[in-house]
Amino acid sequence: MSDENPICSAKGCRADAVWVLAWNNPKIHTPERRKTWLACDEHREHLSQFLGVRGFLKDVVELAEWQAREA
Fold first, then answer.
1. I want to staple 19 with a disulfide (CB 3.0 to 4.6 A). Which of 34, 39, 58, 67 is the partner?
2. 21 three-state secondary structure
């Protein structure tokens, strides 16, 4: 990540990210692979539903916790 604040992945949103949505498309990714989208509070539910309906959503974690795991 850069020095700038991470922003929400929702189309057109420029709000600071608060959440990490970890996902995986089982048709193209190995089971342990995790791709991520970032979400602000406003778009967390919408993005989670989008991934969840497709069976892709694996985890939703606060950004600070995700960053601590990566450190």
1. 39
2. strand
Task: Considering only CA atoms, give the Rg of the chain.
Answer: 12
CA distance 39 to 31: 23
Q: What pTM was estimated for this model as a whole?
A: 0.89
3-state secondary structure of 66: helix
What is the layout of strands, in order, in the sheet containing 35-39?
35-39, 19-23, 57-62
Give me the amino acid identity at 24: N
Backbone φ/ψ region at 55: left (φ over 0), alpha (ψ -120 to 50), beta: left
Token duo for residue 27: 């048709």
> How many other CB atoms sit within 10 Å of the CB of residue 15?
15
Rounded distance, CA 35 to CA 33, Å?
7
